[in-house]
Design a protein that fits this description.
By secondary structure, the protein is an alpha/beta fold. It folds into two domains: 108 residues, Aspartate Aminotransferase, domain 1; 232 residues, 3-Layer(aba) Sandwich (Aspartate Aminotransferase, domain 2), CATH 3.40.640.10. It is 41% helix and 15% strand. It is built from 13 helices and 15 strands. The strands form four sheets. A seven-stranded mixed β-sheet has the order 2-10-9-8-5-3-4, with helices on both faces. A four-stranded antiparallel β-sheet has the order 11-12-15-14, covered by helices on one side. Strands 1-13 form a two-stranded parallel ribbon. α7 links the parallel β8 and β9. The longest helix has 21 residues. The protein binds pyridoxal-5'-phosphate.
Amino acid sequence: MSLRKSEHIRLFIPGPVEVRPEVLDAQADWMIGHRSAAFAELYARTQPMLQKLFGTENPVFLYTSSGTGIWESASRNTVRQGKKILHLTCGAFSERWAEVSRLNGKDVDLIAVEWGQAVKPEQLAEALEHETYDAVACVFNETSTGVRNPIEQYAEIMRQYPETLFLVDAVSIWAGAKVDVDGWGIDICLTSTQKAFALPPGMAFASISPGVLERAKEVKNRGYYFDVLTLYKYHQRNNTPSTPPVALLFAAERQLNDIMAEGLEARFARHERMAAMTRAWALENGFGLFAEEGYYSPTVTTVANTRGIEVGALNAFLAERGMTLSNGYGKLKGQTFRIAHMGDTQPQHMEALFAAINEFLAQEG
Ligand SMILES: Cc1ncc(COP(=O)(O)O)c(C=O)c1O
């Protein structure tokens, strides 16, 4: 007998994404206490696999929050009083993170580009020549616009500023494309787990560099729940300061084992392939691509609604066929719609989605 009560709607929205039944079921094991040896062993088993996905030897912390909590942790722990943070913004999520820094009392400078554009490395280089920052914060994959920012090129510039911490939101790309924390010198790489990692929401991971732990000692008012020094103290014992989402960690171990079995290269190539399929489908069917050419996301495509279709009507049509996609984000609602191609979604699922959308388009005439 299935435990699942509702009808299955396959999610092509950029988070939460479809979760495989095996991963859902992994959450249903008997509960264990988080101060038990069994929990410490589970935590320790997941660590090397997480480090591999981040491309790092730095510790990976478990946060009992979605990715937004790690924004707060990153902003709050890395910027000293009287110092500044530079935010690179190009869409809804990068703008919101800048707002989170402000709301935590930080002095924020911005490099802001139009939604749909990527922030160019030259812009970062110029800003760093004119001002000294405690941290630079950027979003690798801007989920609202479908832009993949050139993080590798930012990394080359950041190398010249070792005192400035490099904070990267990899929320909607981690586990779907290569992230090379050590190669790119990223100090905090933060994620959520309900996107390309394809877990139910409620937990998030971040890699934390020794430079962040040193900096945090000089930052006053780090709070408690998201204080990296407290998290690190417990991390060293394979534990967390407060009660973690144990069932989600059961699911994470299952997912990590499966990701390792698929192989990282194969997983990332599958994402690239599904992204290319989605772009080709959009262009062949009279739609446009909202993101700047050359900066297309491997995990989510923001389709420019140049045919002026009713996205709500499309979604109602798709729901009857057991699928759903996302309307445009915020001010892009109606002008765009978003198709996620991440996690454990396979090319045949994309084919089924395109066939259904084409059926809708044919009926619309
Ligand atoms: C790029 C990006 N950053 C941060 C967030 C916020 O993450 P969460 O919803 O897990 O708090 C999102 C959510 O969609 C996102 O796409």
